[in-house]
Sequence to fold (488 residues):
Amino acid sequence: MRLRSTLILLVVLLGLGGYMYWVELPKEKEEAQKKTLFQFKTDEVAEVSLVYQDHEIALKKQGDEWHMTKPLDVGADKVSVDNLVNAISECEVKKELTDASSDLSVYGLDKPFATVTVKLKDKQLPAVSIGKNTPVGFSTYISRADDKKILLAGSAFRSGMDKQAKDLRDKTILNFADADVQKFELHGESKGLTLVRKDDAWTLEQPGPYPADAPTVRSFLSTLRSMRAVDFPNDNPTDLSKYGLDKPRLSIDLSLGKDNASKKILIGGDNPEKKAEIYLQASGMPTVYAVSDWVMRDLNKDVTDFRDKTLLAFDKAKISAVDAKFADATQFKLVAGDKQSWHVEGKEGPPNVNTITQWIGDLHDMKGFEIASDNPTGLEAYGLDQPYLSATLTGDDGKAVGTILIGEHKNEQGSKDYFGMAAGGPTVFKVRDYLITRMKKQPQDFILAPTPTPGGATPTVAVGNPAANDAAGMGDEGEADGDGDGDE
Fold:
């Protein structure tokens, strides 16, 4: 009896499973397919046409890139066109109006807002007319040319098809790789700069010569590469004075590759109607671009911006000793043993290697933020005749690498300004005060000393000033924070 019941249940289950597989699943698939306006793969799309009452946009795919053929023959923005194609392929039909009026003006389909046509690689899809939005419900009336039924799509479909040529145009202004730039020049009303790449290092050749600051050069080139048009005011201007491009505020010439191929940027005036935009031309092309005004701020650099303000360039891995002397008679000598195992000369106790390497790293990274003087006649005005700090570096070959001098000088407001230079160098730089504060150390700040704990263990921690405790991973109360980085 039980076997018979089991067999009956098995037959019922098999029948139910077959019904679900052969009847319900195909039905659900068919219903799901009916929810979208078309069924196609986006990578099959070859052309898209958007026809409006006052303009037309035509796009054609060439290889993996999109090109605009109407109203202009220009490159198209791949991301924007891909988003457009995705919006068409994902257009959901929410409802079909079974009692639709024959008067198409009711739905705005007598004079459609837009007509969208998609051509695949092997066929053309029926055109889609887009009408009004419904009074309620966030829907849009649409119809396909092959059946004329009135359908409801989400209102997002209409807004997604609302395009001007500028929305779909390629907004890239310059294409180049930083590694290809061999030279660039900036010319403005009061400047003329030339920077040249030599053995992967940049030199400010005119005026100069001066070493150039590599991060500043990278940032400058990045701005040129990343700037994008926000509008295209004129593709064939007859009067450049309208855009301030007859006498540009700034011109930039790039020399690329071994053949020194040239790319040029001209920056003109402000857009009087949009204060956050400026006008620009590129590489001799007639098109006037509008770009965000931050472009001018980032590109309008002078000789001071481009100059390397490192007090003394050296390789930390090739330093064997640093002899530091402060104006208050504090002095110490940091010495590197095997494999850069630093210690403090003449001080007993285990060295706090983290604090030592951080201090040497701060010395290595010490930069000015402003050029105080080139070839000064005296150092008294900068406190460098009797420096606040003198740090002399010795290389692993035993030869002197150089000496960094830090001076302090009271200004007219009564506060202190700090200055730095390499001893014997031609330039005095103004230095941020917080950088100098971090450099102030006592010899014991570089030593780990035993401290008793309630458990009887005696871990070693840094002693001395609070800055040293922070470097050793200590909190304000002298307790270890657990991760060794000094952050609580």
User: Anything to note?
Assistant: Confidence is low (pLDDT under 50) at residues 461-488. The longest helix spans residues 2-34. The radius of gyration is 36 Å. Residues 189 and 249 are 7 Å apart (CA to CA).
